User: What shape does this take?
Amino acid sequence: MVREVPLWLKVAAGIFLAGMTLLLLGPLVVVLGVSVSESQFIAFPPQGLSLKWYAQVFGDARYLVSFRQSLVLALIVTGLASLFGGASAIAIHRRAIPGAGILATIFLSPLILPTIIYAVGMLMFWSATFGAVSFLTLVIGHTVICIPYVLRTTLAVLSESDPYLEEAARTMGAGRLARLWFVVLPQCLPGLAAGMFFAFNISFDEAVLSLFLRQPDLTTLPVRVYGQLEFSPDPSVAAVSSIMIGVTVLLLLLADRILGLKRFSEG
Amino acid sequence: MKAKILLAGTSVLFAAPLWADTLTINSFGGAYEEAHRACVIDPFTAATGADVSIVTAYSADAFAQLRAQKDAPQFDVIHFSGGQEIVGAKEGLLAPVDPAKLENIDQLYDIAKPNLAAGEGPAYSIAPVGILANSEAAEAPVSWAAMMKDADASHMVLTDISNGYGMLGFLMMNQVAGGSMEDIQPGLDAVTDLLERGTVIVSTSPEIQQEFAQNEAWVAPYAADYAFTLQQAGLPISFVNPEEGLPGSFITASIVAGRDNGDLAHRFLDIEISKAAQECMAQALRYTPTNREAELPEDVASTMVVGEEAVAKLIRFDPTTIEAKRSEWVDAWNRTIAR
Amino acid sequence: MTDRRENLLLLAPGLALLALAFILPIFRMLALSVQGEDGLTGAHFARFLGDPFYLGVLWRTVRLSLLITLICAVLGFPFAYIMARARPRLRTLLLIIVILPLMTSVVVRTFGWMVILSRNGILPEMLRDLGLAGRSFQLMRTETAIVLGMVQVLMPFMVLSILGVLARLDQRLEEAARTMGCSFLGALRHVVLPLSMPGIAVGAVLCFTLSASSFVTPNLLGGTRVQMLAASIYRAVTQTLDWNFAAAQSVILLVGILLVMAPYIVSQGRRHG
Assistant: This one.
């Protein structure tokens, strides 16, 4: 007979969750407050109530262009990073070559070095080798810094997976591709999903590489916000963040409705 | 359909030479970029038919980009506000500016064009660094000495010297405290004293705005243009022109080496330093013009540091010395302020 | 096709990309660390390693990164566990709560912290009212502020890493343990925790490396008086323009982080051959 979870533990869990919510969302409440302020500067508590900053953001074509550029970039990067990172994780997990564990560490190094070092190195290298930077340079740069996330999270779930499953599939005559698709991939999915989520976020939010590998007509959203803050620090920046919060909540609720978020947390 | 394609084809053909006439520059974003566009870029496009591509990049970022891209520079004209043009010229990243190609160059104060032949482009604006004060919260100090001695240090905000304005503000405090370009210890001691009394150090302009907006800051040494930005936002900030005088931060436009449209770049510089453009920038952002012909309406001019006499009085800390000693000073500063 | 070839084929694209688009460019940058005006030199390293100030910055970086990682793990594990066992509705809500901080511009988010932590802020005022703090007490621009801000943004990395592993965990194992007389907490400690270790390890690696290499959040919350190594590197690149020194500091950061992570790397090596 399984004993019930004691009541005090349930209460403790409730208090714990409330505390976590305060820690994680407290500062964001301030952001939401600032975004509906009437004043021209970022201040809290908000003075007056107005939606003008939202109107300004939605009315400013440059914000919309930047949003689209960031979105396209993040989607491409997420796709590439999950492909490269996922495949590498599978190979490393299977001990493709001796020292695969060391290799897994080398794959981490883009996370350890401050992005600015990579950004400057990449800019020097690219300029010397290929000339002017382009959208492609940014895609490659972002992909490199996103791969470690996918690789790590996928490796973690693989290390807990059942090694005999693939063997069984082989015995039953499944081909290589079929085994990868029907056996290995589903095993990777929870980790891959988390990794993809990280990759998307990192790319969408990344400012340093985007700042240095920049060219005219390509200004991602974080770079646009950074530029806005330096010379015209007004609540429109808080409105952009609040819109992002809204979009995230909406997307997740939608995903919940459609998928029940099963894929995310249960594979 | 065919006719349309033909038409599109020919228009591309005709458009081609214009495309070649594109100038890539950096600008500083936000309201600065808007004013830059209205005062300089649009008139330039109207006069030459050439397009201008803008990359939003501050001096420090722009310089790092310029240096890393040495093998394939993307900028034609590059703007700096922290003296980076001196390092750039020394490293051969910038091309010499030919005064013969600039019709307006004679109208500039001499101080704005010290080293054109080396590649240090002319200054088209000056941002004087004085004292920003919240006039509602406390009485504004009338001098640097008064600020350091009498102002409520626990409501004072200093800017880190890694920031160009921060550096000038510090050098000024150093000078008032008895230091010199050879000896910044008096300045460091003064800063230590302020820190002990509760002064805060920030490193970016948005932080200054936030400190004033949250009423944490009452006094801060910073630039006149930012005082205007804060006033525009509705904050009760006044800009104090201290008794001991004030240093100026020079905003320069330089031509990048290794690009092939130098003539167009010179045209751009010429328009940028012109009387009309400088008047326009001064009205929009309160930068001091470097063109002696520039005239401003009385209500604007009265709030600013303008005119030959006033500019001559600006304290000029030798930028070459600053560049030479920057590393050493930042190091000493970091040690002084570290907790 | 042999197994070996299949594996190499899977590995090759990622490896090639890493070698060409990361190792090559980064090597170009890091090579500056040993270059001086006349040939090779160790002067940039000596400058750092012979100076208590910089060693202090390195030590603070390692110390705070470890602390941030520890807090993330201690708070993140129960959070992830509750998520994994919660009803779908609550799980979605918790997921939203944990990832929202990631979706806001860092400068604005930092402003949020400033409102909470500065002298006139909510938290110090509360502490003052309770008589626990003095008049000018503030948390803004302290190590505490860095830790709070970093924990807030890194929490999703920890929680989602653990969740990925917990989701694959066979719930019957836990039930079996409890049927055999284990208390709830006992089962958590003896069954769930050990099995979620790979997830915690990944979360810890991400949190630790990201804490050590982040610049914007620590710089804005800690201020320039509480410097971390990444900020010092940024400054050398963009302000003092001393790229040789920046490169040397980066090498030291890289080596320092790898040394701290050595036990983990070794265990990974055993695990994955």
